[in-house]
Amino acid sequence: MADQAGAPAEVHAPDIVTMRATVAQVLPPDVTPVDLTTLETLTGLLCGHMQLLIPEIEQAAAGLPNDDVPRYCALVSVGEARRKLADRPGLRPYDAVAHVRRLGRSLLALCDHYETLTGVRMCIACDQPIRPGEPTRPFDQGSHSGGSAVSGRIHERCSNTVRIH
Q1: Which of 94 and 153 is assigned the larger pLDDT?
Q2: CA-CA distance, 19 to 160, in Å (whole number)?
Q3: Quick one: how far is CA 144 from the chain centroid?
Q4: Where are the beta strands (DSSP E) in the chain?
Q5: Please, which residues have CB within 8 angstroms of residue 132's CB and are 6 or more apart in sequence?
Q6: Angle CA 124–143–145, to nearest 5
């Protein structure tokens, strides 16, 4: 890609850390908000994240052989995500809660597929890429918001780091 002056356009990877943090606001069920204004905001955020990530996954999948299993699984997930984007919640308040949770699960799957297809991993402590061969460790932590969990991998060097949100 180039800008109008012919210089290469700067390309940014999707912000998977932010996408996962948005999902953490609706999953697990005990953290999902119930007020309609917050649900509408989260629905918009989740849909926007999905719309940004879907073409990235399709582009990454396009470079793989047709019989590649991770490619196939990612494209199935993309199809499911598109169906969920087209769905609209019912009229009852609980319908909006169920809808935003479905979107959250779908976005989480898309994040996983993106990372699998691209090999991009982000440290959830410092928001920097985890490069091949860097020592890492799994990270699972409940949040102070009452039960939501943040999980992923962190750099070994970040294991004793405190992060303030």
Answers
A1: 94
A2: 24
A3: 20
A4: 136-142, 149-155
A5: 119
A6: 135
Q: Write the single-letter amino acid at 89.
A: P
- What is the reported pTM? 0.72
Which pLDDT tens digit goes with each residue over 1-31? 445 555 445 557 788 889 999 999 999 888 8
Q: Token match 């061969």: residue?
A: 133
Q: How far apart are CA 19 and CA 33, in angstroms?
A: 17
Count CA atoms closer than 13 A to 153's CA, side-chain side: 16
Q: How far is CA 35 from CA 13, 136, 164, in A?
A: 32, 38, 26
Q: Is 17 within 8 Å of 24 (Cβ atoms)? A: no
Query: How confident is the model at residue 165, as a pLDDT?
Result: 45
Q: Which of 87, 91, 13 is nearest to 52 (CA)?
A: 13
Q: What is the C-alpha to C-alpha distance for residues 27 and 7, in angstroms, rounded to an integer?
A: 42
CA atoms within 13 A on the CB side of 100: 27
152 phi/psi in degrees, rounded to 5: 160, -145
Q: What is the DSSP letter of 158?
A: G
How far from chain centre, in Å, is Cα 140? 16
